[in-house]
Design goal:
Length: 180
Amino acid sequence: MKTLSKLLSLLLLVLSISVFSCKQESNSASEDPKAKAGLQAPEPKTHYVTLIVDTKMIPQENPNDAVEEFCKFEGYKGSLKKYWTEMYLGDSIEWRGVAKDTTYIINITGIVFDQGQDPFLNGFSDLQGFGKKGNKKRGKPSKGTNKEWLKYSILFTVQKGDSISETIKIDPELRIETEM
């Protein structure tokens, strides 16, 4: 009987704590009307676009015509032309390249907008990679794209020692939302 009484007391205590916790959470969410309505803007973050290059598969002639055969974006299995990044004003984006064969270095040499206005009015920062990693580009958009997808090009070179390839181009899409 004593054990049953202790168990009931413990159960009542746990139940009281659970109800109090739920009440605290609902009160904190209702203090901010935007949060309650689901309109709170996300925290700014950095989006990473990592290009993986299989240097053994690059053809000697016209590599731009065969780019789908030796390049892919990290975590993406579809066509390079259908790869897209969606971000918010206030976010940053970093483009970087990685060679499957570590004796090569992939240098991101440019980001060029093929259609529409370039939303990166302040340009891009050149970042040096660590160790055997090549140059990267980082940008923070200064305006949105009005819910439109912009076609742009990532320009890169492949380097082995002092030898640098011709510039190779990939053209994915980007959209920058100004608000949620």
